[in-house]
Design goal:
Shape: globular
Strand content: 15-25%
Distance between the termini: 59 Å
CATH class of the largest domain: Alpha Beta
CATH superfamily of the largest domain: Glycosidases
Number of strands: 18
Largest sheet: 8 strands, parallel, barrel
Number of helices: 10
Helix content: 25-40%
CATH architecture of the largest domain: Alpha-Beta Barrel
CATH topology of the largest domain: TIM Barrel
Length: 420
Amino acid sequence: MQQKRPLKFLLITLIVLSLLIGIVIYILVQRGTVYERISMTDGLGINIHEVSANEIELLAELGVTWVRIDLTWERIETEPGDYEYSETNYDELAEAIEANGMQPYFILSYGNPLYSGDQSIETSAGQDHFASFVRETVQRYKGMGGVWEIWNEPNYDEHWLTEPTYEPYADLVHKAAPIIKDIDPTATVAGPAMLNLNGDSLVWMEELFKRDVLEYLDAISVHPYRHTPPETVSGDYEMLRELIDQYTEREDVEIFSGEWGYSLTSLPDDVNEHQANYLVRMMLVNEMNDIPISIWYGLRDNGTDWTNELHHFGLMDAQSQQKPAYTSFNTFIDLFTDYQYQKRWETHDEVYALEFKNPNAGSLYALWTTSDQTQSLTLPLEAGIGTIMTISGQEEAVEWTEEGFNLDVSGSPVYLMVEE
């Protein structure tokens, strides 16, 4: 009997440990840690507007993982209590997302004229109706390992028409987020999809944080649009992180770049090339700042009016012709799949040299400058050989001595693949 006690004790210990591990995993899932990025490209996505499987096929060809799209309340519930998902093509959309191995970034968006005269939801009754819409919708599309974003840009007067916006929006989060988490344990709950990331918008965000939303959201989503280069976002992310730390002790709250792009109308000469450059630099800078999801706005242009900035953000024009930005995005995804970010090498401030690793393929470097002039760069690498690739996919074999790799870099990033 005495010889059996250690074995019995070991079995009991293993059972207890298994239960504890199961509890920890359950808690993590409930908190929203629903996806694991193997490489940086696992966090890349596109915002679309057309609700069709064809759009998903286009995104699959491009190679992105995430599909951000509105699940529009007034389109789904046109009669009180009657929710339509098939005729609105949302069922077709969800099936196409799953069939192509992608993940949804669903926006639970906007008011409904059945219950409110404008885009905002001010009353408790209106919020209850929105909560019913959330319950029905999440129940239908649960288990997809997706992001559920509550509203879109509530700090923007066209998307929330009454002031102040932060208080009723916070109430909406308090009501909707628990419903999502209860129905879909695989969900990541995001908000507020705040327009812009600057001093004024952060003042609005702080008012939101004062109302306890950080205990309900797994990710703070922002739209860091700007007419300055993408690299200027780093300080804004830092301020947002400091604000998050000020209002919660949680360490698992992520920041998502839920929507960001550059319109051709806001760029200097050679606008198509600038857009392609900024797209790549935006994705790289987001990765450098530990932003796990980056959504580009958007797939195709919304129109052809050159006086309307909103018409020219797309990777394709209004006739679905691919722009250079499409090629640069496709090249980027193909090249960086299975690579993980390591560090930014020490250079002078205007030059960026980011290192990525793939255990099976060696090192990959992304190199560029924010200066209008080319800048000289020396990477202190051991003597070796490799390949330089442009953002459009053009390749050139290179070699260097023990003195390091020398290159003149411009505002258009290049990739150095080092042969191990």
